[in-house]
Amino acid sequence: MKRFAITSFGDAEKVFQEIEAAPRELTTPRHIRVAIKAFAVNPYDIAFRKGEMSPKRLPNFPYVLGKDAAGIVTEIGEEVTQFTVGDPVIIHPVGGAYGEEIVLPGHKAVLKPENMSWAEAAGLVTPGITAYHLVTHFLKPPPKTIVMIQGASGSVGSLLVQLLKQLDVVILASASSANKSFVEALGVDRFAAYDKEDVGAAFLNQADIVIDATKGGRTSTSGMAIMKTGGTYVALNRLPEEHARTKSGIYRQFGPSPEYDDAEALRALSHLFANQQLHINIAQIFTPTLETIVQSHHLLEGHPPNGKLIFEW
């Protein structure tokens, strides 16, 4: 079984290696085995590979990254009742998806809709879970709320737009001018291109909620300008430091939490996709090789294209 692992923390070209691993046994009667058809690369993978996640203990190297994938169930534990062999599934393991096969708990998988491609299924997982929990459990915006999404063309940002469109809210959005048509097609109410105008001035004091979904959280100054006094500022990356906050309000950082049910999120998102109410943007599909794995990490570290980077076997 082919897998791509890191041998230590460090630069992609120095630490990745291709390994051959024997298939694992099912760990418990509640586990399943999945032949992976596609997997995605995420910013989390980059941070983990660089040693920036501060794990409680060091992983056992060589360590296989990957939390987002899709494939076909090839074996089920005797206590698994929700799947049968041959089922197409979307999976969200704690790691190990950069490979041909994985064993994981059955509750970490949901059925893939028939009209969803393998690439779309793999591309949905982490961005979709993040967007779903943020909208459904974290914010729960009431009708007529004005929400600003910075980084609306990104994987999370574009899904946030689509989920918020299911609610009776007003959506303001920013992205580069190159992505204007893409973001507007998602259904935003107003758009501003950060490379053409001052987004903070364009939407000054207009948003009840500001969501910074940009890479690295680079837009806090304009985000605070857009937020109404007393509003809510949510960062998916870094919050502005307290001394730099230019306006009173609620400042909250959002990330994964054991309080949320990720399978619930994937089932809800799959239902929307099956009913053609959700679009997953794929930037590029690679054939898995050591060289393309390294290439994808470099792309994501630099100026990545608009959409998900996917590997298909």
TrEMBL record:
Q: Which Gene3D superfamilies match?
A: Medium-chain alcohol dehydrogenases, catalytic domain (3.90.180.10), NAD(P)-binding Rossmann-like Domain (3.40.50.720)
Q: Where are the transmembrane segments?
A: none
- Does the entry feature the keyword DNA damage, yes or no? no
SUPFAM superfamilies recorded? GroES-like (SSF50129), NAD(P)-binding Rossmann-fold domains (SSF51735)
Q: Which SMART domains has this protein been placed in?
A: PKS_ER
Q: Which UniProt keywords apply?
A: NADP
- Which parts of the sequence belong to the Enoyl reductase (ER) domain? 14-311
**MF GO annotations:** oxidoreductase activity
Q: Which InterPro entries match?
A: ADH-like_N, ER, GroES-like_sf, NAD(P)-bd_dom_sf, Zinc-ADH_QOR/CCCR
Q: Does the keyword NADP apply?
A: yes
PANTHER family registered for this protein in UniProt = QUINONE OXIDOREDUCTASE (PTHR44154:SF1)
Q: What name goes with this protein? A: Alcohol dehydrogenase
Organism listed in the record: Vagococcus acidifermentans
